[in-house]
Specification:
Elements: E1 2-6, H1 10-22, E2 26-30, H2 33-42, E3 47-51, H3 59-68, E4 75-80, H4 84-93, E5 97-101, H5 105-119, E6 126-129, E7 132-135, E8 140-143, E9 146-147, H6 152-163, H7 171-178, H8 189-201, E10 210-213, E11 217-220
Parallel strand pairs: 1-2, 1-3, 3-4, 4-5
Antiparallel strand pairs: 6-7, 7-8, 8-9, 10-11
Helix pairs in contact: 2-3, 3-4, 6-8
Length: 227
């Protein structure tokens, strides 16, 4: 998942950057509101973390402009303790949730996971499709109750496909949302990840969880449990 961090405090911005990358998020940073607005307009993000007290353009104005332009990515705002008016203004401008400084990273990750699930229509941290269950909180996958060993890239690819189950996801979309800018977009690496996932999820060749839509991309085809 690709996340935009807009924070002017250098130490906190780098702390967020490192913590998110350890959780295998792709992170891009902006140090002021104008740069944050530019990046949010130009690139597809799954979520943005926005400090309200930004130079050049406030976080509230950044959010207002994005919403006025129809940019619907989930936004988590960061506010100073006790500034309840800022929280109200941020939510009214179009933010989806807020976190008060200082905060624990565990709470940040819990709120991010909740926003990402909500944006893709999933209420539970566990995405259950047939015998395949992906736990977004623990970042673990099981097949028929047995844990699967996946690389970070394999997990990220599967998580994105399962969040968008039933929809065709192009290789370009996967690359933009999951991998750093220096990722080799012209290579067949995505095909390699898909091949590995198919072997691990479907060793007997009976389940066929990931379909190839020729010339369009890939689609996770298993039905959600309970449907």
């Amino acid at each position: 998942m690709r996340i935009l961090v807009v924070e002017d405090e250098t130490a906190l911005r780098e702390q967020l950057n490192q913590a998110l990358k350890r959780k295998h998020y792709v992170v891009e940073q902006a140090a002021d509101g104008e740069e944050g607005l530019y990046l949010a307009r130009e690139w597809p993000y799954d979520l943005a973390i926005v400090d309200l007290g930004l130079p050049k353009l406030s976080g509230i104005e950044l959010i207002r402009r994005l919403r006025a332009e129809g940019v619907a990515l989930p936004v988590l705002i960061l506010t100073a303790r006790g500034d309840w008016q800022d929280k109200v203004q941020g939510l009214e401008a179009g933010a989806d949730d807020y976190l008060t400084k200082p905060f624990h990273m565990e709470e940040l990750f819990a709120r991010l996971n909740a926003l990402l699930r909500r944006a893709t229509g999933h209420a539970s941290p566990q995405l259950a499709f047939g015998p395949v269950v992906l736990d977004t909180s623990a970042q673990q996958v099981t097949l028929n109750g047995a844990p699967l060993e996946l690389t970070a890239y394999e997990y990220g690819t599967l998580e994105y496909l399962m969040h968008h189950a039933g929809k065709v996801v192009s290789k370009t979309e996967l690359t933009e949302h999951l991998y750093d800018q220096d990722f080799d977009r012209d290579s067949n690496v995505i095909e390699v990840f898909i091949t590995r996932l198919r072997k691990k999820l479907d060793p007997d060749g009976n389940l066929k969880p990931i379909a190839t839509e020729r010339g369009r991309g890939y689609r996770f085809v298993l039905k959600a449990q309970g449907t």
